[in-house]
Design goal:
This protein has about 200 residues and is mostly beta strands. The chain has one domain: SOS response associated peptidase-like (hypothetical protein yedk fold), CATH 3.90.1680.10. It has 3 helices and 12 strands; from the N terminus they run E-H-E-E-E-H-E-E-E-E-E-E-E-H-E. The strands form 2 sheets. Strands 2, 3, 4, 5, 8, 9, 10 and 11 form an 8-stranded mixed β-sheet that branches. The chain has a 4-stranded antiparallel β-sheet with strand order 1-6-7-12, with no helix packed on it. The longest helix is centred in the middle third of the chain and has 9 residues. The protein is globular, with a radius of gyration of 16 Å.
Length: about 200
């Protein structure tokens, strides 16, 4: 799963690292993002502008936003089977920029946070889905979920799931109009030898 991630770069550096449009000059990145946070997303591969959506996917048929609190991750293997995710997978895919994410492991009587990042690049994207929802009063909410897959050999020592990570060589393919089978091929565990993990003094 992925329940906490961070961006440890300035907006300007993140823009250059991932070839994005300029962030709003007042944008700052918090120490960490949690479910229900407003997280940065990219939904247009041509404009590549960054918007901020609620982290926790809210399907169009939802009665209220509370469903999003338990839908911050979407399993890659069942995207076409789950009504909550199917239409978003086929029509509303997004990229979520990050520099790393946290996972916990029990050591003795305490849970210790570990921080996962990439060796060769500071920034990358998570594969994501987004949705649009409106309540009876006309209030609009744009929401997103991070897609997860089976853990690679490195992450499996800490958790059996991991977020789908897309580097600059593959990220924009996720946004293209491709058959579902081809899109599924992008949702694979990241190369464990290209990742690094360290014990975190705090999960921020």
């Amino acid at each position: 799963m992925c329940g906490r991630f961070s961006i440890d770069l300035s907006p300007k550096v993140m823009q250059l690292e991932l070839d994005l449009e300029m962030f709003h000059p007042e944008v700052t990145f918090p120490p960490a993002y949690y479910p229900s946070s407003a997280i940065p997303v990219v939904i247009d591969a041509q404009r590549r502008n960054v918007e901020f959506f609620y982290w926790g996917l809210i399907p169009p048929w939802a009665k209220d936003v509370s469903i999003g609190r338990r839908m911050f991750n979407a399993r890659s293997e069942t995207l076409l089977e789950k009504p909550s995710f199917k239409n978003a997978f086929l029509r509303r895919r997004c990229l979520i920029p990050a520099t790393g994410y946290y996972e916990w492991k029990t050591l003795g009587e305490r849970k210790v946070p570990y921080y996962f990042s990439l060796n060769s690049t500071k920034a990358f994207f998570f594969a994501g889905l987004w949705e649009y929802w409106m309540d009876a009063a006309g209030n609009e909410v744009y929401s997103a979920a991070i897609i997860t897959c089976a853990a690679n050999m490195l992450v499996a020592q800490y958790h059996d799931r991991m977020p789908v990570i897309l580097d600059r060589d593959h990220c924009w393919q996720w946004m293209e109009d491709r058959p579902a089978a081809e899109l599924q091929q992008l949702l694979m565990p990241y190369d464990p030898e290209a990742m690094t993990v360290r014990m975190a003094t705090t999960a921020k």
